[in-house]
Every structure is written in C-alpha cells, then in structure tokens.
Amino acid sequence: MMLAALDAFARERRLADDPLYETRPVDFRIRLGAKGKFLGLESTQDERGKGQPLLIPRMPQRSVNVAAGFLVDNSKYVLGYEEEPAPRTRKAGKGAVRSAAFLKLVREAVSELRVPELRAVELFLENDAAREQALAERAKEEWTGSEMLAFVVGDSVEPVHLLLEVRAWWARRGETEAAGGRTGLCLVTGRYGVLAETHPKLKNVPEAQTSGASLVSFNAKAFESHGLEQGDNAPISQQAALGYVLALNDLLRKSEERRYRQGIQVGDDSVLVFWTNSTAQEERAILSASDPTEADLRRFVEAPFRGLEPSELDTRNFYSVTLAGNSGRVAVRDWFQTSVGEVKQNLRRYFADLQLGAGPAEKPTPVWRLLKAVEAPSGRGLSPDVSTRMVGAALRGQPFPRQLLSAALDRLRLPPSDDKFEREQLRLRVALIKATLIRLSRSGAAPLEVSVSLDKTNSSQPYVLGRLFAVLERLQGAALGDINATIRDKYFGAASRNPATIFPRLLQLSVHYAAKAESCGWLEKVKTEVMALLPPQRFPRNLLLEDQGLFAVGYYHQREAFFANRAAAESSTATG
Fold this sequence. Notes:
Pfam family, one: Cas_Csd1
Mean pLDDT: 84
Protein name: Type I-C CRISPR-associated protein Cas8c/Csd1
Helix content: 40-55%
Number of helices: 20
Organism: Myxococcus landrumensis
C-alpha cells in the first residue's frame, strides 16, 4: 500500500516520466576542440556555489562499487581525481579505475555512432595530459571529487549528452538492457513488467550513508529465502521501484529554507514525510505555502484553502511515513493513511491538548523540545522510537505513549535547577502530562477531568492535593524568602506518590510559616478553601501514575494562578 501510494505520487507529479534521465546540478562544462583538445573549464555555479540544474543520463547505483555515468559524472570518474595520489605500483589507483569505467561507456557509444562530438570526448579521455590540464584549471584544494562535469565541443552550447543522436542511442541501450531482464508480476502495480534486481537508493535520510541507502534490499543470504536472490524475493517492476524512490527523494530533498521539502525531523535518526493524492497545485493550497515544520502545522490546520472548497480538499487522502537510517539500509518506523480532514481535526486536538493557561494559544512547541524537557539529565531514559510514536499519535488522534507520563513525572521529582528557563521547562513537562492524561481519558483508559487553567470547582483528590502543595510552597516562600531547598525540592516526588506520609508533616510546618510571615492571611484563606474540597479521608496512602499526573497539573495551575495575581497587582500599582 505504501509503495503503491508513492508510485502513484511519482506518476501524478511526472517524476518518473523518463526513467533514463534525471535533473541534477552540473558544476562545470569541459569545453573541447573538434580533435579532443582541452580548451577550458567553464563554471556553471551561481554566487552560492550551486551548479546549474541540467537534464543528464540517470546516474547508476553505487556505494563502494565502481559504476560510471554516461558522459556526465563527478570529477573522480571524468578526470580521475584522487584526494591522495595512488602509489606507484602495478595496481591502478581508484582514480584510474573510475576514469577507465567512464571511458569504456563512451567507447561503446562511439563504436555505434558517427558523432564527431562524441569522438572528441573519447580522444580527450584517452589523453592523460589533457585530463591533468583540466584538473590544473583549479587549485588542488578546491577540488572535492563531487563536482559534476559535462562536455561541450567547439562553440556549441548544447552538451554532448543531449545531442539527438546520442540521446537516441542511450534510449536504445536502455530498452535492450530492460528486455534482457526477468519479467514477472509486480507486487506494487499488479501488472507484469521487467523486475528490478536492485532498487535505487534514498537520499537525505538521517543516520543513513550520504551516498544513499536502500528501502527494499536483499543484499545478504540471511535476507533471502526459497533460493531467490536479491529483488526476486519481493518482485517489483523497475518502473515501480524507480517511482517510489523518486517520490521519496522528492519529498526528502533539501531546499533553501528547510532541511526537507516536505518532511519533519523526528528525533535524531528519523524523518516523517507526508503527501496527499492531490495535484501539486492543490497540495500547495493545502499546505498554504508554509514550511511543513512542527511549528507551522497550525497554519496547515487553520489556513483557508485558496480557490478550492475545504470540504473537497478534506476528502483527499493523506499519507505519512517515518523513515530511519541505519548505515546502508532504511527502516520504516511508522506508516499510515487517512484523510486531510481527519488530520486537520487531529492536529487541532493536539494543539488544544497541549495548551496550558488561560491566555491566548502559544506557538506550537516542537516535539523535540517537549521530549528534551522530560528526558533524564543524563539524556537517557526515553526509547529511541518515542518521538515517532508521539508524532504518529498526534496525527492519528491516539493516546501518547504512556512512557511520556512516567518520564515527565520522574523529571518533576528532581530538584529544579538554577536555570533561568526552569519555569518554561516546568510548563512543557506539565503540558505533556496534561495532554497525555486527556488522551488516555478520551480513549477510555482512565476517566479523568483535566482543564486548561485553574479549575476551583474540580474536587478530584489528586488535583486538589497538587493545588494544596502549591499553596504550602507559597506559604513557605512568604515566610522564609529565598532558601536553598524548598518543600518542592525535598518533598514533591514523595507527596505526589504517598500523600498520607508527607502532607501531615507539611501542614504542621505551614502553621509555623503562617505565624512567621507577615500579611499572608489571604494564603491561609486559600489553603482553607482548597482543603475544603478534600474528602473526609484527606490523604490517600498512595496515588497511581495517572493520579500523580493530575497532582502535577493541579500544582502547576495553582502556582501559575499565584504568578498571574502578582502580575496583576504589580500592573495595578504601576498604573495607579
């Protein structure tokens, strides 16, 4: 289903119309005379060092193997460039092996065609001195080996590889190679075709090789079965294999503004890419021309669709796949399909679940920041796939991983640091706790009532106990001022787990705080109001994990209410 959707995307966007050619940036043109004489190295790079996009014969798959492109390739293949010169032994260096492979393909074309420009390229490649002359056009330290080079001959501006006779030969050669392949029923399209022995590689996947990595691969005996080799283990036609790879590479490609054209970095080793079955124009309207990053997903949810009825676009299919790299292979961590309208609704709910406080909705917090706020100080504790599961839950409208609730509570039990961002970290942790509780309640797993801001009518025992803890903390601060260790530092974790053990002691201390503090009668009044909401058996022996989360939300709500009251009082004094 996933590969079929990607193949359909490639066909809709016409990415695989020409399986023999692709568009890539070419950095330099090598200009030759009619007899193969080197005339100059012409840069096609812009002021940012980006090469000119040009249609070229599709590059072959390669990692450690030697596989040359046809008439266009990097300087390692075209000029035999090597970072370190090969030792003078009988065995040829890598540069010589690569340039020989590049020349071999050119000779194959020359043997069947009478094209003077093609013969000029052959003569140049056979002349070691001419290739050295081309390399000498730039300082040695300027060459990287990745520069893409093409050929022009004489005064022509048309590259040799785009000449009509050359293109026709390349097409015939491709048809001949395809005809020699094994045919069979394609698992993606359901039609008979020439099956791919190996699949093209995906680029720009986190933690994968920079040269690319395979999504479908059987490159070792351990992955094969029933005596089948490589692609025969999952028969997919060459056209479909090329289609799904071109689709993913189009979604994953970098742009000037962002790392992925249509993807979101999820954790350190994963990327979520998404697309629809709309046309390119409709999809631009759906995304409202915004950057598809977490912080801008609200624009996707709220933006009016330009020129099309929202109801029409809401019925379009929405696809999402999360990919993780592992050296030469790519793993699928998550995949699902729904409708655009369903995703919009789920994202609205996601933002609402994370909202904390009575003020206007804040800018959405990226998932990585939420997870950073709840991970252990050592950076350990969360499973590698938790970010993938959280983003998937947001898009699907499902409960967050329960692990997040446990991690956030563990982080709250640690004494706060002196970091000036501690208040913001507290907000992020409690927001995640609140959202996790709401989603658990919505799924029927734990019927809990969680509000956005302080709810003075909420008589849920864990929530009220959290409020009471915040009141007692405020009483201590009013009486003692800034001290090294507050009751939050010492008792928050124990109070949220075992209230009956801690609260009697804290209430005794509060009596002394009230006697010592000046003008804190209003705090005593708040304490009385909060305690009046508790049942006769005020302090349970222990609280379950979900109740501990509700305790933390009550604590935060009451604490922020104190901050809001103080800010209002200061504002009133300033204006008066």
